[in-house]
């Protein structure tokens, strides 16, 4: 029950803050009093000059002068709104346009949908513009791989632009988690991330940031995603072994290999007494540690929000499959829903609210129109265009009724209709298109069988043979008699 008591306490504090804000808005006498005091003080002397101009000279001249000033002001600013005193002095209803609600509305962007999805479009643009990023991946691919850093060359990771990108990405993920989980102790979670990183860094177990002093061989090795062959001298990856072997004999590779050997030799000679080299190495290692720490934090944050990540991917795929008109309809529906929530009566009873919610949940469909992709009735003009109001019954399919000519034409090749023909003993379904009655189908099938027999009989009687006595007979009979020796 401690968590429930804590929740009640936080709710009371928020309600008190909201009440204080409403009280300040409903009682503006303090600000007006301060403004009146400033006018009485007359620090710039404008009040004294105005009193002198009114009290001395012709009264009407001063009146018309001020009137002309007012007319000139409205000529210069014709669209200036008039101060609405009725709105200023009208007592505000409880729960109407409260500051607390507006704060919640502005906490998330429209793409985030109150914490359901990520909004990483700007971060995606920053990623594809990084110096070491050679692939221009799509936003969907970025959502799957934004916590994978092995494909970036190690020297490019030490550049300021990459370091700034990691900072922006980690800041966004941390901010998003704080907004969707306000009641959890996230500071302790983030501290555990740092502790895990320090332990892994001391053991040299951070992927992609191990020390190179342990490796004694100069043979080909894979780096990045593990695909292909990595050239340490040129810091370049090759996907084909033949291309890598041809690269070894190139001038650029030979030059880079000699430079690498020279750096290794210089490091060995200065390691005994060169404090400058040690300091430079330590500074370089500190830079790597800072970059690795941000990468580690991003991996942990992404692993803690896998649900939001998968939901974001599904939402992006859904939007990419929508037409522009469907997107406009979705935005209009969201906007209408927001207006309905804002215009709801806060003094309604609980029973009334539940009844309204039930009515909103029911889809108004008096014409019995088919439902579209958004679970709402399709437009009536589309219903008439496709002829969905015309019924096409099929007796072969068990008196099933198809709505619309398109569905009716399509069903002749479907399993339901083919199974019905098979039950009637009909095998050639291509001849029975647009035939829906059982009696018609059986009569047509019988007629086709009779015609088939007649065609076979007629083909046998086409060739006539004549024997030596002048008797005419079919070819088949002639050869049969000849085999029997009767001719």
From TrEMBL:
Sequence ranges of Basic and acidic residues compositional bias = 255-266, 308-327
Residues in coiled coil: none
Q: What keywords appear on the UniProt entry?
A: Metal-binding, Nucleus, Phosphoprotein, Zinc, Zinc-finger
Q: Where is this region: Disordered?
A: 254-284, 304-327, 342-362
What would you give as a GO molecular function for this chain, any one?
zinc ion binding
Q: Note the PROSITE patterns from the entry.
A: ZF_MATRIN, ZINC_FINGER_C2H2_1
What are the Polar residues biased-composition ranges? 342-352
Residue stretches making up the Matrin-type domain? 392-423
Subcellular location as annotated: Nucleus
Example GO CC term: the record gives: spliceosomal complex
**Low complexity compositional bias, start-end:** 269-282
Main location per the UniProt record: nucleus
Question: GO annotations under biological process?
Answer: mRNA splicing, via spliceosome
Q: In its keyword annotation, does this UniProt entry include Phosphoprotein?
A: yes
Q: Which family does it belong to?
A: Belongs to the SF3A3 family.
Q: What is this protein called?
A: Matrin-type domain-containing protein
């Amino acid at each position: 029950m401690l968590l429930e008591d804590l929740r009640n306490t936080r709710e009371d504090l928020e309600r008190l803050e909201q009440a204080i804000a409403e009280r300040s808005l409903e009682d503006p006498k303090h600000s007006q009093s301060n403004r009146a005091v400033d006018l009485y003080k007359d620090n710039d002397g404008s009040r004294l000059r105005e009193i002198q101009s009114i009290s001395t000279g012709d009264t009407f001249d001063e009146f018309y002068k001020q009137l002309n000033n007012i007319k000139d002001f409205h000529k210069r600013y014709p669209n200036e709104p008039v101060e609405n005193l009725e709105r200023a002095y009208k007592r505000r209803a409880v729960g109407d346009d409260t500051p607390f609600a507006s704060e919640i509305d502005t906490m998330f962007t429209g793409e985030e949908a109150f914490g359901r999805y990520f909004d990483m479009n700007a971060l995606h643009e920053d990623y594809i513009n990084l110096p070491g990023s050679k692939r221009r991946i799509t936003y969907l691919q970025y959502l799957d791989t934004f916590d994978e850093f092995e494909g970036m060359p190690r020297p490019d990771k030490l550049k300021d632009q990459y370091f700034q990108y990691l900072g922006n990405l980690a800041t966004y993920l941390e901010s998003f988690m704080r907004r969707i989980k306000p009641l959890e102790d996230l500071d302790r979670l983030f501290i555990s991330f740092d502790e895990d990183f320090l332990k892994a860094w001391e053991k040299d177990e951070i992927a992609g940031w191990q020390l190179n002093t342990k490796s004694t061989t100069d043979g080909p090795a894979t780096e990045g995603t593990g695909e292909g062959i990595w050239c340490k001298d040129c810091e370049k990856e090759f996907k084909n072994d033949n291309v890598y072997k041809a690269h070894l004999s190139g001038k650029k590779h030979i030059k880079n290999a000699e430079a690498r050997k020279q750096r290794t030799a210089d490091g060995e000679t200065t390691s005994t007494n060169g404090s400058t080299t040690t300091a430079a190495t330590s500074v370089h290692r500190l830079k790597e540690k800072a970059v690795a720490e941000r990468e580690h934090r991003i991996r942990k944050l992404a692993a803690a929000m896998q649900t939001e990540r998968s939901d974001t991917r599904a939402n992006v795929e859904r939007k990419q499959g929508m037409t522009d008109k469907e997107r406009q309809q979705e935005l209009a529906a969201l906007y209408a829903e927001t207006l309905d929530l804002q215009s709801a009566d806060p003094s309604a009873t609980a029973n009334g609210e539940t009844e309204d919610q039930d009515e909103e949940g029911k889809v108004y469909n008096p014409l019995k129109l088919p439902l579209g992709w958004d679970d709402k009735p399709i437009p009536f003009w589309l219903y008439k265009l496709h002829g969905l109001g015309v019924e096409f019954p099929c007796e072969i399919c068990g008196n099933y009724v198809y709505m619309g000519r398109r569905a009716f034409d399509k069903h002749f090749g479907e399993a339901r209709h083919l199974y019905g023909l098979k039950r009637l003993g009909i095998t050639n379904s291509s001849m029975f298109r647009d035939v829906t009655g059982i009696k018609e189908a059986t009569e047509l099938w019988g007629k086709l069988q009779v015609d088939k027999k007649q065609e076979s009989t007629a083909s046998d009687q086409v060739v006539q043979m004549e024997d030596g006595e002048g008797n005419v007979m079919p070819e088949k009979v002639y050869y049969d008699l000849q085999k029997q020796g009767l001719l």
